[in-house]
Design brief:
Aspartate Aminotransferase, domain 1; four-stranded mixed sheet; Aspartate Aminotransferase, domain 2; 14 helices; globular; binds pyridoxal-5'-phosphate; 2 domains
Length: 426
């Protein structure tokens, strides 16, 4: 650790809880202290000592065009010149909403908020207001932001009432959240058949990406859709990560399964704080001021964030980089698979488009319990070896690896060389 890094860390932990403004940045899952970033460009991060890294975190998903994309920066600069917030409608908000509605098949109307957390919280409230029911179903290992109803883990045994996953979440809230294993259609069908009368919605990451990447098995999303339709329960796809990552239409277009409500965030803000909730007009019109479900935000639809979002979505729709991203990502995944095989390291690689996870696991990983059985200590050593070699992976075995359009074949080659050296040395 350099003196500068040490000084920054000491200063941070003195005045910021845990030294960070979001817990997973603190390196607690891998040990050590976080890298302090000075600036970034393309797929490269530069730390406070000038050391360079190839970045596979990309601000936890948003930066599909890489850091500091010239068109996005220029849009942000131009927006700033016109004023940073008005608290009144702008032409850009309507344009941005139009772009989202045209891209995401199930969205007819969309409301902008300032984070993914807010989007999920709003979607849940809307579902409860629309159906007049209080309970919700979520899946273990899926993350939907840190609002009270969603920071809930499974009680003992499947299909029991949820218990708070954080101090400060009242048990009275948590008991309205039922938590089920991801990819377990039987447990889901049993629960919804028994309890549908009190269930407002099912919320799911259509590709789980907050326990590492865990793809939905064939039929899982379709089963959710069919049962929700049968019982008048709303299906919410939390596409905060998958939206505009798996294609312009997100996971719903990729898998051909349409939710009633969709939450977006991350990529649609082009690196600025934003979130969105959208869906069928009939449901969305229940939001205030037309409907009785209250939702608001001083900085909602912020012109600078919207400008960054428009610039990002414009590039994505004009250049349609998804096939190229998929190829690049496939090369990284194939390379990692080959290396782990050659070195006889038990591993299981999951990938959907430009997001993937290398799990150090003896067995396939299809839900959160499988994720917990993976070798976290091997990941810790792998992470630090890679960091040393200038490859910035997520500082947790339970997070995704993301690619951007700024990564090149050469970056992938360098990464694979580093991975082979790192894994050989463990
Ligand atoms: C990141 C994330 C959120 C929360 O978004 P924030 O902007 O961090 O509040 C919600 N859902 C999913 C699937 C996410 O990955």
């Amino acid at each position: 650790m350099s003196k500068r890094h040490n000084d920054l860390w000491q200063a941070s932990i003195t005045v910021i809880p845990g030294g960070v403004n979001s817990p997973v940045r603190a390196f607690r899952k891998v040990g050590g202290t976080p890298v302090f970033i000075d600036h970034a460009r393309g797929c490269r991060l530069f730390d406070c000592d000038g050391k360079e890294y190839i970045d596979y975190v990309l601000s936890w998903g948003p930066l599909i065009l890489g850091h500091a994309h010239p068109s996005v920066l220029s849009a942000i600069r131009q927006a700033c010149e016109k004023g940073t917030s008005f608290g009144a409608p702008t032409a850009q908000e309507a344009l941005f909403a139009q772009m989202i509605v045209e891209s995401v098949p199930s969205i007819e109307k969309v409301r902008l908020v300032s984070s993914g957390t807010e989007a999920a919280m709003t979607a849940i409230r809307l579902a409860r207001g629309y159906t007049g029911r209080d309970d919700i179903i979520k899946f273990e290992g899926c993350y939907h932001g840190h609002s009270d109803s969603l920071l809930v883990k499974a009680g003992s045994g499947a299909a029991t009432l949820g218990v708070p996953d954080s101090l400060g979440v009242p048990a009275d809230f948590a008991r309205h959240t039922l938590t089920l294993p991801y990819n377990d259609t039987d447990a889901f069908l049993q629960t919804i058949q028994q309890k549908h009368q009190t269930i407002a919605c099912v919320i799911v990451e259509p590709v789980a990406a907050n326990m590492g990447v865990v793809p939905p098995e064939d039929g899982f999303l379709q089963t959710l859709r069919e049962a929700c339709t049968t019982y008048g329960v709303l299906l919410i796809f939390d596409e905060v990560i998958t939206g505009f990552r798996l294609g312009l239409g997100g996971a719903q277009a990729h898998y051909g399964v349409m939710p009633d409500l969709t939450t977006l965030g991350k990529i649609i803000g082009g690196g600025m704080p934003i979130g969105a909730v959208g869906g069928r007009a009939k449901i969305m019109d229940h939001l205030a001021p037309d409907g009785g479900v209250y939702q608001a935000g001083t900085l909602s639809g912020n012109p600078v964030a919207v400008a960054a979002g428009i610039a990002t979505l414009k590039i994505l729709s004009e250049q349609n980089p998804y096939e190229a991203l998929n190829r690049l990502s496939g090369n990284l995944a194939d390379g990692l698979r080959d290396i782990t095989q050659k070195l006889s390291i038990p591993s299981y690689l999951t990938r959907v488009g430009s997001m993937m996870s290398l799990f150090f696991s003896e067995q396939p990983v299809r839900d959160f319990q499988d994720v917990l059985k993976t070798d976290a200590d091997r990941y810790r050593r792998y992470f630090h070896a890679m960091l040393n070699k200038g490859i910035y992976l997520a500082p947790s075995p339970y997070e995704a690896t993301f690619l951007s359009t700024a990564h090149t074949e050469e970056d992938i080659e360098r990464t694979l060389t580093a991975a082979e050296e790192s894994l050989r040395g463990l």
